[in-house]
């Protein structure tokens, strides 16, 4: 009996020590994030993420909040990136607003948009020999763009409807990632593509097509990429999220002030030709931004368009999509 009591007392002491040290995983300290996992796409839209990574700012700025490592994972488009976020494989995402909305509405993605990343910046590109004077000329053509629910797919379908063309009837739309779409137009498998930069500049530099419509002509000042943060991080480490937004603002402002260096960072990250990247900067109609207040109306309009297209069951509200408080605190 004495032996059993001794064992129980020893076990109690061990449990107490474990609780004090926080090794059970239930203590507040244990739940702090030590590795920030970032999702991004290989587009010039999202150079802020690349600059912060290249400069070491993610790790440097977030170290006071317990983050010791920052990793990033490349995704071809927003849909697989949002699936990774739903599966808790990434903590924050540089991604198009449209796929984030679809994931929130249809798959219960627990996350919010906390900052803008960029506006406009995609082009409709047709093969050199394909004539174009107006949207009506697209009737009968095959156009490749990002998968359903993405920014490019949503904008393009809405624009076709506004010009009395029925998607998938008057114009065949083929879902592809940027690499496959550029290969398809080079091989004459499609008449054109609607893609984010730098893809239009790459296609033009290879003599495989020319831009005929910029996305800003389709919807002026439309929202594009945004910074999405998981709900878990927002609830459990709001101070860390505020610093994430500050670091994003820091990188965005640095890129705007140092465009040539931003081009080098992008070229080194993706392997693209530096001259093509600079050409893309000159030709695109996009702008790097961080203030989410600039894009709220545009993003909310996407939910209405996506509802009309049958992508979401009901439009989401601004409060369901955004948490603007972190940007407000970061810029106070």
UniProtKB/TrEMBL annotation:
Organism from which the protein derives: Methanoculleus taiwanensis
Pfam hit, one: NMT1_2
Principal subcellular localization: membrane
Species lineage: Archaea, Methanobacteriati, Methanobacteriota, Stenosarchaea group, Methanomicrobia
GO molecular function, one term: ATPase-coupled transmembrane transporter activity
A GO CC term attached to the entry: membrane
Gene3D superfamilies: Periplasmic binding protein-like II
Protein name, entry field: Sulfonate ABC transporter substrate-binding protein
Top-level lineage group: Archaea
Alphabetized UniProt keyword annotations: Cell inner membrane, Cell membrane, Membrane, Transport
NCBIfam families membership: SsuA_fam
């Amino acid at each position: 009996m004495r032996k059993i009591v001794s064992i129980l007392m020893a076990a109690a002491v061990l449990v107490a020590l474990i609780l004090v040290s926080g090794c059970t995983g239930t203590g507040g300290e244990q739940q702090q994030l030590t590795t920030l996992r970032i999702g991004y796409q290989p587009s010039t839209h999202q150079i802020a993420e690349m600059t912060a990574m290249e400069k070491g700012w993610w790790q440097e700025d977030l170290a006071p909040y317990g983050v010791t490592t920052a990793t990033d994972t490349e995704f071809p488009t927003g849909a697989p990136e949002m699936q990774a976020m739903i599966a808790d494989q990434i903590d924050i995402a540089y991604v198009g607003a449209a796929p984030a909305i679809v994931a929130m509405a249809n798959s219960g993605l627990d996350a919010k948009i906390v900052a803008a990343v960029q506006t406009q910046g995609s082009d409709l590109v047709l093969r050199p020999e394909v004539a174009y004077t107006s949207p009506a000329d697209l009737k009968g053509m095959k156009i490749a763009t990002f998968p359903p629910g993405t920014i490019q797919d949503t904008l393009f379908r809405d624009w076709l409807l506004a010009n009395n063309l029925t998607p998938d009837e008057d114009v065949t739309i083929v879902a592809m990632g940027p690499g496959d779409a550029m290969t398809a137009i080079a091989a004459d498998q499609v008449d054109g593509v609607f893609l984010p930069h730098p893809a239009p500049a790459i296609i033009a530099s290879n003599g495989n097509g020319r831009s005929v419509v910029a996305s800003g002509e389709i919807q002026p000042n439309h929202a594009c990429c945004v910074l999405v943060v998981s709900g878990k991080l927002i609830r459990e480490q709001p101070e860390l999220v505020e610093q994430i937004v500050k670091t994003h603002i820091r990188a965005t402002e640095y890129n705007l002030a140092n465009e040539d260096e931003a081009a080098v960072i992008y070229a080194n990250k993706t392997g693209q030709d530096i001259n093509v990247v600079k050409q893309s900067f000159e030709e695109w109609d996009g702008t790097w931004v961080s203030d989410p207040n600039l894009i709220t109306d545009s993003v909310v309009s996407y939910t209405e368009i996506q509802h009309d297209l049958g992508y979401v069951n009901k439009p989401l509200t601004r409060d369901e999509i955004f948490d603007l408080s972190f940007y407000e605190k970061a810029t106070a």
